[in-house]
Amino acid sequence: MKSGVRRARACTAVAAVALAPSLAHAHLVTTGLGPVYDGILHFALTPEFILPVLAVAVLAGLRGKVHARRAIVALSLAWLVAGIVADRAAIAVPDTLAWLPLIAAGGLVALDRALSPLATTVVAAVLGGLLGLANGASLAQAGAGLSGVLGSAVAVAVLVTLCAAAATAWQSGWLRIVWRAAGSWIAAAGLLLLGWSLR
């Protein structure tokens, strides 16, 4: 019995060494298709970026068409400008603050309070700026440069437009509760990240 366990452990160790990658990355930033696609893929594969963007889009969509239109422009433009600033100035954004946009955006969706169009625009611009700085810093480290920032900003604009339109169109009855529940899950993901950053 003991020899069988030893053999199983030895086989597991050999398999782990044989299958271990020689190089690993936390986020795939280079696709081989060019810096624009690298920026798009980096945004799409980073939950700390995509979830708050979804939350802001839903928040604006639940408030109506005027809010949604303003949020689309404010978030996308702030993302682009902040990304360019981070790329040019080589700003380092601490990873420990990744929880803040998740809690703020998700919490606002879950609360579902009435906001003025100006307040929605300010929320979208501030979160877009914070997330754009972090994204631009990541892309600058990977060497994607301004083309990568532009690719991610286009991806943000498309995602915000689609999600805000869906939230604007589908909010009657129980669907509004579904959107609010999604916001609470995004806020919960932020609380989880906060707990991890404190350990």
Low-confidence stretches: none
The major pleated sheet works out as: none
Helix and strand run: HHHHHHHH
Return the domain count. 1
Task: Give the termini distance in whole angstroms.
Answer: 41 Å
In which range does the helix fraction lie? over 70%
CA-based gyration radius: 20 Å
Outline the secondary-structure elements.
Elements: H1 2-19, H2 35-44, H3 47-63, H4 65-89, H5 99-111, H6 117-142, H7 145-169, H8 174-198
Helix pairs in contact: 2-7, 3-4, 3-5, 3-6, 3-7, 3-8, 4-6, 4-7, 5-8, 6-7
Verbal overview:
With 199 residues, the chain is mostly helical. The protein has one domain. 80% of the residues lie in helices and 0% in strands. It has eight helices and no strands. The model has no long low-confidence stretch (mean pLDDT 84).
